[in-house]
Please model this.
Amino acid sequence: MHALILLGVALAAGADAGEHLLAGARHFREGRYTEALVEFRVAERMGDPDARPYAGATLVKLGRPEEALEAFGTGAAAGGDALIAYYQALACYDARLYLCADALLAGVGERSGPRVAAEAARLRADIARTLRAEPSTAAVDFYLARCQALGGERRPAAAAAFCREAAGLSARRRDGYRRDDARKLLAGLTARAEAAEARP
Model:
């Protein structure tokens, strides 16, 4: 409720999108993530294309990884910004999308500075241990079920991320368990997610 009040006040204030983006960044740096999210959402609604990935990073900080996945969308991580890619990887990791997280973390590398690079290496080692064995059918089923549930909630980018994970895990199995199901779901969701992202 507090966030809705802040959103209404921010919209009524008449500031431009860039001011809201800067205010969101200030709140983020100060650890006030709820306020940062409000400012980034206002900037996004006012048409700032940079606001969405920052809202995603903020949602990661707030412990809401599936919402963060939706905010990051289906595209590449914020035009190659290593720190945004790192937060997108954390959203994947926190949502247990380990193939997604690993792919993003591989691209972060040294571009993000030594602290983030060290954390990325630690997470990649953890992921490698987790994915060492052949994925179970139950794991593939879990990701497909989550994909379908999120798709039904009209969260196509997050749903597509779960479908991609299911397809990737299926590809790691000798029998390719439910690979075609994952691909079919993913094709429809990707089109819906891209259409949703294109809307202002």
